[in-house]
Design brief:
Number of helices: 8
CATH architecture of the largest domain: 2-Layer Sandwich
Number of strands: 22
Strand order of the largest sheet: 13-14-15-12-4-16
Shape: globular
Oligomer: single chain
CATH class of the largest domain: Alpha Beta
CATH superfamily of the largest domain: Probable tRNA modification gtpase trme, domain 1
Distance between the termini: 39 Å
Length: 364
């Protein structure tokens, strides 16, 4: 099983580890509730080094990504990043990377794509096959580390460490800034609804930066956080996880990701997606809140009037809402907020209600 460069630091504080798509990741450092409160009230530091990091550069990089991605890459200026979708020509979801447009001192386009571990190899192969000789695809996953600092005190903490720049960074901005003497690619992007900074550094520098951030934020309540609380935070925001909520059997139309499709431009999956859009969808991703105790598992059935209408993909106990919440695909006619449903929980049916996403509002 693969391990991130920070694995020894996690073992040193006896973090509980878990498996995620072939990687050992920290599941919990102290207690899920404590880590949740740290993110909502102060800041939580996450090791997301298990993500794949693919650098795409060369004179044909922009044109290649423009053809493969559903968003308009020509409107992604240097020094910015955006969540996007890669679709098969049939319209199903190939991957959902965050795309960073990096500075390119040698000229030509230079981008960094993050991917979920199960997809890194297939995305790299697609880029190389379609890009030809006009681009270079460099898998930087092993030589770069990736941290995420999330919470209301993040800007003040990082500004205190660096003495510059962080409070002025707008959402989706990407900058090269020094942190504790370490050259760091800093991006204002994340999935929890809090103020989030992703920090990408050379792998060898990651342990020093990890400890520096925790030391600088100790008195402010900053904590290391694991995958369990990350799952709660992203579900409260209605953010989908590839391999759980979406995969190559799903389309962005049914997954509620149409806002990340720019039909004004040409791209490989455009015609298939236009046909799906015109035809409509049989099933639609929806959020639900349980009205009684219990928590369903992934794959649990969703019912209405004793008829199976869908399936659960994600479910967590929400500290903010003090009830079980989740995501699932249901027949379109049942996807409207307010719809009463029942969900399978340990061989019984628990009352629930379809609710509008996100569960937890984004902070400005």
């Amino acid at each position: 099983m693969k391990q991130t460069i920070l694995h020894p630091a996690h073992e040193a504080v006896h973090a509980k580890m878990a498996e995620f798509q072939g990687w050992q990741v920290p599941q919990v450092f102290t207690a899920v509730q404590d880590e949740y409160q740290a993110v909502r009230a102060a800041a939580g530091l996450f090791d997301i080094g298990f993500l794949g990091r693919l650098e795409v550069r060369g004179p044909g990089a922009e044109a290649l990504l423009q053809d493969l991605c559903t968003i308009d890459i020509t409107k992604l200026p240097e020094g910015s990043c955006r969540y996007g979708l890669l679709c098969n020509t049939s319209g199903t979801l190939f991957d959902d990377p965050v795309i960073f447009h990096l500075a390119s001192p040698r000229g030509g386009g230079r981008y960094l794509l993050t991917s979920i571990p199960m997809n890194t190899g297939k995305v790299a192969e697609l880029l190389r096959r379609r890009g030809g000789t006009s681009i270079v695809v460099d898998d930087r996953s092993a030589v770069l580390a990736h941290l995420a600092l999330q919470g209301p005190k993040t800007a003040a903490l990082l500004e205190g460490m660096a003495g510059q720049g962080f409070r002025k960074l707008k959402p989706r901005a990407v900058r090269e800034l020094p942190l504790s003497g370490i050259a760091t690619t800093v991006a204002r992007t994340g999935s929890t609804g809090e103020h989030v900074y992703e920090l990408i550094v050379p792998a060898a520098d990651a342990p020093a930066l990890w400890e520096a951030i925790l030391q600088a934020g100790r008195d402010a309540g900053v904590r290391p956080c694991g995958f369990a609380v990350r799952d709660i935070l992203r579900t409260e925001r209605g953010r989908l996880l590839y391999g759980i909520d979406i995969d190559e059997s799903r389309t962005p139309i049914e997954a509620g990701l149409s806002s990340f499709i720019d039909f004004r431009k040409n791209f490989a999956a455009k015609e298939a997606l236009l046909q799906m859009k015109d035809k409509g969808r049989e099933r639609q991703l929806a959020g639900f809140a349980l009205l009684d105790k219990g928590l369903p598992k992934t794959g649990s059935s969703i019912y209405s009037e004793n008829r199976e209408i869908g399936v659960v993909t994600s479910a967590v106990q929400s500290p903010a809402l003090r009830t079980g919440i989740g995501l699932g695909y249901v027949a379109r006619r049942y996807a409207q907020p307010g719809q009463e449903i029942e969900i399978e929980v340990r061989e019984r049916e628990v009352a629930a209600r379809i609710v509008e996403l996100p569960f937890f509002p984004k902070k400005k």
